[in-house]
Structures are given as C-alpha cells and as structure tokens.
Amino acid sequence: MALNWQEDSAVKIRKVIFKPLTRIVRLVFIITLTLHDVAFAIYVRYFSESENNTGFMGHFCGALAGLLVGIFVLDNRRVQSWETWVQWISFGIFLLLVGFAILWNVFGDEWYKEWYGVGRFFPRPDYQLYDDKSGNCKHYEYL
C-alpha cells in the first residue's frame, strides 16, 4: 500500500467505491485492524483476569517481518528511485533482525549472565518431569 499509494487512485471497485475513496477505505480498514489488535493486547496484558498464553511479542515480530519483507518482495507498479532504496533498506533491516535473533539464540545465556550477573535467559529443561522409559511427560500420560 505504501509503495503503490499514487497508483491506487487508478484502481476502482466497480459501482461501489469511486477512485479517490479506494485508498482511504483501505487505509481506514488497516488502521482499524491494527488499533484493535494493539488495544486487545493491552487489555489482555493489564486488565484481563484470565490467564492468557498468547505470545504478543511473537505476533508483533511476525507483523514487523511481514512488513519488511513485503516491502521488498511485493509488486511495485511504478518504480521510483526512492522506492528502490526503501525496498533494499527494509530488506537489510530484516536481515539484521534475523541475524540478531540467531545470535541471541546462540549466545543469549552468556550475554544475560554477563549483563545481570546471575541466572539464565533460556532455562534448562527439568528432566524430573519426564518418564525415564518413554520420554513422555509424567503429568500427561493420558495423551
């Protein structure tokens, strides 16, 4: 939507939405969905009584990755010079973030111990929970 903003005025949904409104309708729809998701995450985190195991940070990072890769991969109808730079910069930011994620998974425990002096960022598995014979969790034998 960002790369094809000027060209979207030429797109027309037949007999429903005329040219100038197409961009506005798309923008309002995307902003509404985004605000709803953010408001729901804040509500669940701070105001909800029930326990929720949704990984909101994982969803946020997935949305960010989708945005950065989408800018690079998706079709651009009329390429302008600045748009090419934005595409390559977004792809570079994506690669940097993926590289950091890989490094964090490899060295995260060492960095965490160095920064905070104690503990582990990635906890070790508790093998007392597993059955020695089958390797399954003791508490979920019925599965």
Structure explained in plain terms:
The chain folds into 2 domains: 1-54, no CATH class; 66-143, no CATH class. It has helices spanning 19-46, 56-73, 81-116. It is extended, with a radius of gyration of 23 Å. It has 3 helices and no strands. By secondary structure, the protein is an all-alpha fold. The N and C termini lie far apart (46 Å). Helix 2 (56-73) runs antiparallel to helix 3 (81-116).
Salient structural properties:
143 residues; 2 domains; extended; single chain; mainly alpha; 3 helices; 0% strand
Helices, strands, pairings?
Elements: H1 19-46, H2 56-73, H3 81-116
Helix pairs in contact: 2-3
Describe this structure in a few short sentences.
With 143 residues, the chain is mainly α. It has three helices and no strands. The protein folds into two domains: 1-54, no CATH class; 66-143, no CATH class.
Number of strands: 0
Which class best fits the helix and strand makeup? Answer: mainly alpha
Determine Rg (CA atoms, Å): 23 Å
Q: What is the first-to-last residue Cα distance?
A: 46 Å
Please tell me the total number of domains: 2
Low-confidence segments: none
| Structural shape | extended
- Give the SSE order as H and E letters: HHH
Helix content estimate: 55-70%
- Report the average pLDDT across residues: 78
Question: Strand content of the residues, in percent?
Answer: under 5%
Biggest β-sheet strands, sense, barrel: none
Helical run tally: 3
